[in-house]
Amino acid sequence: MGTHTPAGTGAPAVALRPSPAPVPAGRCRALAAEADFGEVLTEHMVTARWTAADGWHDALLEPLTPLRLSPATVGLHYGQSVFEGFKVHRRTADRAAVFRPWAHARRLAASARRMALPELPEELFVAATEALVRQDMDWIPEGDDRSMYLRPVLFASEAHLALRPARACLFLLLAFPTGNFFGASERAVTVAVSQEYVRAAPGGTGAAKCGGNYAGTYLAQEEAARRGADQVVWLDAVERRWVEELGGMNLFFVYGEGDRAELVTPPLTGTILPGVTRDSLITLARDRGLRVTEDRVAVDRWREDCAAGRITEVLACGTAASVTPVGRVLDGDGAWTVGDGTPGPVTSRLSAALAAVHRGEAADPHGWCHLVVRSGRKPV
Questions:
Q1: For 252-281, what is each residue's pLDDT tens digit?
Q2: Beta bridge partners of 262
Q3: Residue 209 annotated among the catalytic residues of the structure
Q4: Residue 359 C-beta-side C-alpha neighbours within 13 Å
Q5: CATH class of 2-179+363-373
């Protein structure tokens, strides 16, 4: 059994116990070329365990396998669980680029703190990432709109139903090949404002990436889908007028056009997830001379400014959906169109800029791309 530790760090080693009969590389590529989001998992996973007595230990890369859990597992009953999502893009047959793994490691730790879970060391997070990407590199799909999505999960694994934080936890890292969450990236989506439900309240868990934040949105999402919408627009829980998020994504409103365009995005007030893609777009926009303001936008202002032509584009962003244009908004019995209902030039420019960094076609002055080189078997 081998081990893996990120070069130049004191991270705990990840023991390597790969499958003795790996899926042939050609079969990996065939599955990766067509799989929908979350449909086909790669053949390995990384696990690590934590106990109050021993801390983090037993980090292991092994074949993907079902878990054996007690029916009294704390995470199943009380939702003490957090997760992340980030992507890997193929560069060559033997090289791949993980996008901002350290930022996702920090956000997982922040989510864990909010849910009274132990913080996974950033070095161990990155070591697990490197080990899995190296082992399952053949699963990274080719093509500008395809990538491998990494899903870390940290949950309370103790078998004890007392109402207290668990004293044993399990970390999992899974991966799957995928395309854009909404399909063709040039398609503008339709969104529906939720007037009945809220996603997060002040003092709650809106800024943490925990499972309950997503399960609680399913009913609203189903209702929006019946109205012909792709996603739900969430308003604040107090006044029900300030736009916060779109589904699990952050929103940007574009005022004006061309080099004088200004992007406005809701501020991170504790009820909004601090998106890594959001942060990346703010940086890319400012690098290109665009003004970016963090300010609240009321839903009535959204409608009025679209009608007056002041808002020319709206875009959503997130790891799964990358940069997604918003073309039409449903609100109650009314609706309005953003611009002409098609992707605008600022959205397209930022989407192309982000994709170029992902694929290594543009400079990476901020050091966002973490390169991983293949180890083990050669491609065939």
A1: 999 999 889 999 999 999 999 999 999 999
A2: 255, 291
A3: yes
A4: 13
A5: alpha beta
Domain with CATH 3.30.470.10 in the chain: 2-179+363-373
Q: pTM, whole model, 2 decimals?
A: 0.94
Inter-residue long-range contacts of 72-79, CB under 8 Å, 24+ positions, other chains counted: 72/159, 72/160, 72/161, 73/156, 73/157, 73/158, 73/159, 74/156, 74/157, 74/158, 74/159, 74/160, 74/161, 74/166, 75/155, 75/156, 75/157, 75/166, 77/161, 78/156, 78/163, 79/210, 79/211, 79/212
CB-based contact 261:254 (threshold 8 Å): yes
Give the CATH architecture of domain 189-343: Alpha-Beta Barrel (3.20)
Total residues belonging to the chain: 380
Q: Please tell me which residue in 89, 209, 278, 370 is annotated as part of the active site.
A: 209
Pairing of strands 147-156, 14-16: unpaired
- pLDDT tens digit sequence for 141-195: 998 889 999 999 999 999 999 999 999 999 999 999 998 777 655 689 999 999 9
Q: Delimit the CATH 3.20.10.10 region(s) of the chain.
A: 189-343
